[in-house]
Amino acid sequence: MKRKALVTGGAGFIGSHLTRRLLKKGWDVLVVDNLTTGFKSNVPEDVEFLEADVSNEKILKELPENGVDVVFHLAAQTSGEISFDNPAYDLKTNCLSTILLLSWCAEKNIDRFIYASSMSIYGDVETLPVKENVFPKPKSFYGIGKMASENYLRLYESYGVNSTALRYFNVYGPGQNMENLRQGMVSIYMAYVSNNEPVIVKGSKDRFRDLIYIDDIISATLAVIDKPVTFGESYNVATGKKTHVHDLINNILEAFTYDPDAYPINYVEGTPGDQFGIYADISKMEKHIGWRPKTENKEGIKKMANWVKNKDEQRLSAE
Ligand SMILES: NC(=O)c1ccc[n+]([C@@H]2O[C@H](COP(=O)([O-])OP(=O)(O)OC[C@H]3O[C@@H](n4cnc5c(N)ncnc54)[C@H](O)[C@@H]3O)[C@@H](O)[C@H]2O)c1
Fold this sequence. Notes:
Blueprint: E1 4-8, H1 13-24, E2 28-33, E3 48-51, H2 59-62, E4 70-73, H3 80-83, H4 87-108, E5 112-118, H5 141-157, E6 162-168, E7 170-172, H6 185-194, E8 199-202, E9 208-209, E10 211-213, H7 214-223, E11 233-237, E12 243-244, H8 245-255, E13 265-268, H9 283-289, H10 297-318
Parallel strand pairs: 1-2, 1-4, 2-3, 4-5, 5-6, 6-11, 7-10, 8-13
Antiparallel strand pairs: 9-12
């Protein structure tokens, strides 16, 4: 029998990739998204789509009475930097949404909930690579909201909702929003380069991140669905490798065939709540379910750059 997924945030970058992969695997999918940062055009035509705010209690009444097997909760305000603009909004959209959806699952006997958490919960960590069991010290309202949501997941275990929190690190790849210059380290730098503009870097070039390609995020997300060992657990979803900001920019410049020594880069003040450097220990995912990422940063950056170039060519030929 066909299984059905509810994907919140399915009109966004990661959610739309997930939706397409679930469809390919033969699932029915219902996408719920309020299109704040997502796009209706990201949602495949044959997918049921509900334009709604998942932090609004009324939407629970619009969700199907039965038939949903798994909830993937990805809808969120997704930027640490932006979370400082309006912390109350961040709390509502990122935490209240989680409570409402979990309570809906408990009421409808939906026993599987997969949550898009974030490496932002960790803050600045003393021992790297970071393991899931360190005491989290989030530095942004966004990180605090993700951590709080993970705690709500744990609480709802006792109501029969088996959940898994996936702590995504920095995700990049085709489909990322290239217009938003406040979210997504790779997409921001690549947007400057593809527009042939100086790269503006907020913060030090020596900062480092664990950059994970979208296909690996999706394979990890799908890999946990039917694994009881992952119920009630949180996992780092990352590559286990650190990439410094200056190496990332070099990889992007190379993919666009620019000379990294000649391209203008402006370093400006960092953003509030930004972590200096973090990368993940991914042995828990490996041990529990045998998952490992496949894409090296240079390769992923090339694929994303090709997507950006084709997109730009299509746009120019249409103008
Ligand atoms: N991209 C990353 O590097 C990264 C890293 C860690 C965690 N995450 C998490 O993964 C998830 C997906 O992120 P993304 O990169 O695809 O971002 P995105 O902005 O492309 O997608 C988020 C989607 O959620 C929708 N949305 C926001 N608030 C909503 C609400 N109240 N009701 C309904 N829909 C709402 C938006 O319209 C958008 O389509 C988020 O939970 C994010 O916090 C992303």
